[in-house]
Design a protein that fits this description.
Layout: H1 2-8, H2 16-21, E1 27-37, E2 44-50, E3 55-62, H3 65-68, E4 76-86, E5 89-99, E6 110-111, E7 128-141, E8 150-156, E9 159-165, H4 175-181, E10 188-194, E11 204-211, H5 216-221, E12 227-237, E13 244-250, E14 255-262, H6 265-268, E15 275-286, E16 289-303, E17 309-310, E18 325-338, E19 347-353, E20 356-362, H7 372-378, E21 385-391, E22 401-407
Parallel strand pairs: 6-7, 17-18
Antiparallel strand pairs: 1-2, 1-4, 2-3, 4-5, 7-8, 7-10, 8-9, 10-11, 12-13, 12-15, 13-14, 15-16, 18-19, 18-21, 19-20, 21-22
Length: 408
């Protein structure tokens, strides 16, 4: 019976899981679908391939020029070769192939943005992936001249990653090559590409989308849950923790509340008053407070510190100043209390103006118990008349975060 099997040379292809479990240098046979190819040369072609369970990189597979033209997207082939590894990239080398019948299969890109910087990312190696909201940090041509590969360094959450426009996949006349070389440092981009590996993630880019920077008017007009990109200047920060920081930011036309922005501890120390940053995230709303969430940033050159502008509590247009640094004059203290009942937590200040009550707050992560403003507010008594400077936070109505108080 063994002789018969050998005679008929019947070989059963292995699954993706079996392929990944195989030892390096083992002979493997897999049924896969072509997703893209690099340029044919010298009777060899490199193929990005996939099936429903994973992806494969077929390095310099033996192929005639005539057959290379038939390796269109979705085409099913049976590949025989040896599993290999180079600089972290798992691939099949010394490969040959045959065309086999089967309905075409074209993989859709998987969003792997959340896996950047994790050990899990490598398990998606060679798959078509997309990464959203990356900042361009550096662009250069391999060898220094156009026509070669383009090396793109991107950054997200303060960590850099090396991506690549592979000239044999997407050459200088391709749309993606031209789009990438036109990018500038600081641009916010979404990237689609094959998750190649070279001493770490080294995605071979197949598509790129760049986002314009929104003016404050554009941001204000954006719908809730829209992606936004803004250039803003730090005005104050709440305490850093767990690689997050909340920022009160502004430009010359308005203000932004950047809620729990991704930030390393080292970068948090650089977010000084006036520092310019480019932020990308999603516009959100919580109890009336409009903010940017799921956001991260890159530092830019420039400084700007906003001056407090006058506001009136019973002005029907007050919300148009949301998150700006403002001052209110002639308020009468009604009550002072601690959130949770104990000193060290937020201080709630209720004031009266023109017969109506309004709630202000000393936010402990902005102005903690050791600050002058915390101590000044907790020393207030009912009936005191005060002027207040604050960031016009919103919580079911105006709920300013106090930065300064003056007793009249």
């Amino acid at each position: 019976m063994l002789g018969l099997v050998s005679c008929f040379n019947k070989v059963e292809p292995i699954t993706y899981d079996e392929y990944m479990a195989a030892e390096l240098e083992a002979e493997v046979v897999v049924d896969v679908y072509v997703q893209a190819t690099q340029s044919w040369w010298d009777n060899k072609i490199t193929v990005y391939a996939a099936d429903e369970d994973g992806a494969y990189f077929l390095y310099e597979m033996a192929c005639s020029e005539e057959d290379a033209a038939k390796l269109t997207k979705g085409t099913k082939i049976r590949v025989t070769g040896h599993k290999a590894e180079w600089a972290g990239e798992i691939e099949i080398v010394d490969a040959t192939f045959e065309f086999i019948d089967g309905d075409p299969y074209v993989a859709t890109a998987t969003d792997l943005t959340a896996l950047l910087g994790t050990d899990e990312l490598i398990s998606y190696q060679n798959q078509l992936a997309k990464f959203n909201g990356l900042f361009v940090k550096e662009i250069e041509y391999k060898g220094g001249e156009r026509g070669d590969d383009i090396y793109v360094t991107v950054t997200r959450n303060g960590v850099d990653y090396d991506f690549c426009v592979e000239r044999y996949l997407t050459g200088p006349e391709s749309d993606v090559y031209k789009a990438v070389e036109a990018l500038e440092v600081g641009d916010v981009i979404d990237v689609e590409g094959f998750l190649y590996w070279y001493e770490g993630v080294n995605t071979h880019i197949t598509a790129v989308t760049a986002y314009d920077v929104d003016s404050y008017a554009d941001y204000d007009a954006a719908a809730i849950d829209d992606r936004v990109v803004v250039d803003a200047y730090v005005q104050a920060t709440q305490s850093w923790w767990s690689n997050k920081i909340t920022v009160y930011a502004a430009d010359e036309n308005g203000a932004y509340f950047l809620y729990e922005m991704a930030c390393s501890e080292a970068d948090a120390a650089k977010l000084t008053k006036g520092a310019k940053i480019r932020v990308t995230g999603y516009k959100s709303e919580w109890s009336g407070e409009v903010e940017i969430v799921d956001c991260h940033f890159i530092a830019l050159d420039g400084t700007y510190v906003a001056e407090a502008t006058e506001a009136v509590l019973n002005d029907e247009n007050l919300i148009s100043k949301q998150n700006q640094l403002v001052f209110f004059n002639g308020l009468t203290v009604k009550s002072v209390s601690y959130k949770g009942g104990s000193r060290g937590d937020d201080v709630y200040l209720t004031v009266t103006y023109n017969g109506a009550d309004y709630d202000f707050c000393v936010e402990r992560y902005l102005t903690d118990p050791d600050t002058e403003v915390y101590q000044a507010v907790e020393a207030l008594e009912a009936g005191d008349v005060i002027d207040v400077e604050c960031f016009l936070y919103w919580y079911n109505g105006a709920n300013p975060h106090i930065t300064k108080v003056t007793v009249k």
